Amino acid sequence: MTDFPPLPVLGKLTPAERELIEAARRGEVATPDAPVRAEVLRELLLGRRGPLDPLGVRVEGARIAGTLNLDLVEAGTGLALTGCVVVNPVSVRRARLPWLDLSGSRIAGFDGDGVRIGHDLRLTGVRATGSGEFGAICLRDARVGGRVYLGDAEVTSEDGPAVYLDGLACADLRCAGLRAAGDGELGAVRLLRANVTGQVVFDDAVLTNAGGPALHADGLEAAGDVWLTSAKITGAGEEGALRLIGARIGGEADFTDAALTNETGPALEADRLHAGDLRLDGVTALATAEDAAISLLGARIEGQFNAGAAVVVNRRGRGLSADGIRVGDSFHADGLKARASGEYGALCLLSAHVAGNLYLDGAELANDTGAALSGDRLGVDGNFRANQLTAEGSGEPGTIRLLGARIGGRVDLEGAKLTNDASPALYADGLHVGGSLDLSGVKATGAGDDGAILLHSVEITGQLLLDGAELANASGPAVNADDARVGNYVDGTGLRASASSEWGALTLSGMWIGGRIVLDDAEIRNDAGPALVADRAEVRESLVLRGIRATGAGEEATIRLLGARIAGDAHFSGAELAHSGGETLLSLEDVLVEGKVFLPVDVVCAKPVRGPHPGTMELDGFRFGALGAATWQEWLHLIRWHTAVYRPGPYQRLAAVERTSGHDGNARHVLIAQQRDLQRWAPEGIGGWPARRFHWLWGALAGYGYRARRTAAALLLAVLAAGGLGLWAGQVEEGGHHAAERVADFAAPAGTRCTTVELIGVGLDRGLPLSPGVRGRCDLNTGLDAGQVFTVAIWAVQAAIWALATLALVGYTGLVRKTG
Q1: List of E strands, 270-343
Q2: 3-class DSSP assignment, residue 505
Q3: Are residues 511 and 428 in the same domain?
Q4: What are the percentages of helix, strand and coil residues in the chain, rounded to 5?
């Protein structure tokens, strides 16, 4: 067996060095008052100075001269240089040490590439400077069985990273209070693909980089929590100040009260981040990025997302962008203040999904060139609450966008203030709400043809609440809810809406409402069209417009309900309707109200009138179950004097309602009024001049078939006239003869006077269809001029009797009714 000579060691040790060696053998801390050569430390760790105490080599407050090179060293004991000054860089590349402690020391750099440390690596309070692409402190691919401590350290690099920890594996990474300043695209502190089985702590850290990220941790894997509470992260460039792209955090990522700043790019880039909880409460993120100040695209948060009272500002792009994010619990952003620029929004949640609730109470969102909140296709299994939200948007996308979003519970925007200068303040086409949509007290100002609030084709299982809301649009509708479906009721009590749209201020066309719709005391104004349009709407209970004040303009009615279906009552009591152009106030064409209609005459007839006011109402095809507040006389007045054109339908429906109520006399009165108005307002519907004259005569004599007793009285008068003509004819003499005289026979010569009874009988015989049989004894003498005159007169009476008899028969049997 060959004996190798002992390895050479340094000679001529200084007293300080001998003191150090003796302390290491006894397990004591050495505090030499003179410099110690770095080579002595290397010899100790290599075992060249004999066996050492397991407590290791421990030096305090010393100056280490030369270069401490421990590359590839496999030491049996650890090394502690606490409070020391190490003149040259420390290198422990691929070394193996039980532990290493440089706490409080000043070092010219630390290269621990691939180092293996069995327990802890302590760099707490280190003051380190360096340069190069691998950093002033480098632990690339290092393996530390315990914790890595960098708390309160100050690390500076002039041309590269300050701390390089790519691929580091350790139990915990403790960097609270770290001060790290680097330069360049690689980042000031790098943690790419690092693997930490416990926690990563950067609380109160101050990280800066003038040319790239301040903290670059893409692909970081931490089984515990990652804390950056109250940290100050200042970076530059398009890579972002803080990067956590693709990072996986088993616990919570807590950035509470952190300040993230980047004047030339994003503040936080954390796309595809996977974390237990994410806390951004009180974070301040200031950025100038084309993408987003905070980017969380496709992130997955197993628990809660918190951004309460955070402040996010981006001068060129999105604010907080979380498109496609998945949150396993709730999303809390109460009091969030986000200001951004660009199309997509200060807060972007496109296609995001929140398994719990989403809270934005008191948030302030603003965008000078786009949306404040982009939530298209957003899914929230619980409630979406944004009470007292303030949102300012600009441009076509809308201020609050919820197109195609699906909310499992309620949506609360009570007291929110929403504004947009070019498009809807609330843009929610196709929104599905499992509970209620509460817009109570909302102040919304929008612009454009889509409306200040756009709810086209929304589905709301509960209620739609607009009570006390104040809505304005100077270039379009206030609310557009065409084809919406509301499972319960719509409450717009006290609503204030002003608009300028030919389509209407409130457009509810095709809307389906499972309960009632209430607009009590609402005030709706439109200077270019209708105030309320609800064509083809279906209301399963009542329509309640008590005390509504509605002002319209243009060619359409102020309130238009064409073809609407109302299963309950229709209340218009106390309504005040006006039209700036003097056109129709209320259009109920083809409307069906299965219950009662409460429409007092003063709604459309504020003062007694004595003439037609065309255009006040349209009632053609209007059907209703019964009259409420209005009497049938008042309703007839509305039909006669306040409809645009004559239509028979309203008369017929009123008559049917009265007949159903057992008031046949009222029904006949209504139908007679219909025929009179036909003659007055639409005579062309009767025919030519002869037909119109006959129609007038028919009305005078028979009440258009609805007053048969008048016909019977006229028939009796005609019979009396026939008998009177016969009696009169017997008193007229001409040339010794009478106009009516006895017929010549063997018993009576020609010219013999008839008896009074015979003369009356002649008139009746001539005039009545059924002859009493007296003309064989006494008859008119047609040889005389007077006899001819009486003959013609009785023919006229006979024709009248025939006509009146026919009218009487028709009137009593009801076989014919002229409806006009």
Answers
A1: 274-279, 284-287, 292-295, 300-301, 305-306, 311-314, 318-321, 326-327, 331-332, 337-340
A2: coil
A3: yes
A4: 20, 30, 50
- The mean-pLDDT minimum among 200-209, 267-276, 715-724 falls in 715-724
Q: Based on the domain organization, do 677 and 561 belong to the same domain?
A: no
For residues 590 and 721, state if they share a domain.
no
Decide if 697 is inside a domain. no
Rounded Cα gap, residues 351 and 378, in angstroms: 5
Give 115-166 pLDDT, tens digit per residue: 999 999 999 999 999 998 999 999 999 999 999 999 999 999 989 999 999 9
Among the listed residues 775, 782, 730, 727, the one whose alpha carbon sits nearest the alpha carbon of residue 752: 730
Three-state SS for 497?
strand
* pLDDT, tens only, 598-622: 887 777 775 544 444 555 888 888 8
**453/555 same-domain check:** yes
Contacts of the segment 696-703: beta carbons below 8 A, 24+ positions apart: 698/807, 698/818, 699/672, 699/675, 701/804, 701/807, 702/804, 702/807, 702/808, 702/811, 703/668, 703/672, 703/811
Last residue of a domain, one of 92, 108, 124: 108
Q: Which domain holds residue 84?
A: 12-108
Q: Which string of b and e fits 652-668 if b means at least 16 CB within 10 Å?
A: bbbbebbbeeeeeebbb
Ordered DSSP codes for 701-770: HHGGGT-HHHHHHHHHHHHHHHHHHHHHHTT-EETTEESEEEPP-SSS-TTPPPPHHHHHHHHHHHHSSS
CB distance 254 to 281 below 8 Å: no
Residue carrying structure tokens 């000679």: 11
Q: Which residues contact 394 (CB under 8 A, 6 or more apart)?
A: 367, 368, 369, 370, 420, 421, 422
Same-domain check for residues 771 and 670: no
Give CA separation, 354 vs 305, 322, 331, 591, 744, in Å. 9, 11, 7, 43, 117
Give the residue from 327, 524, 345 showing the smallest Cα distance to 427. 345
Which of 57, 88, 108 is the last residue in one of the domains? 108
Instruction: Measure the CA–CA gap between 165 and 144, rounded to whole angstroms.
Output: 12
Q: What is the mean pLDDT of the chain?
A: 88
Does residue 693 fall inside a structural domain?
A: no
Distance in angstroms (rounded) separating the CA atoms of residues 497 and 667: 41
What is the number of other CB atoms lying within 10 angstroms of the CB of residue 4?
5
- In the chain, what's the furthest Cα-to-Cα distance? 194
Residues paired with residue 189 on neighbouring β-strands, in sequence order: 163, 215
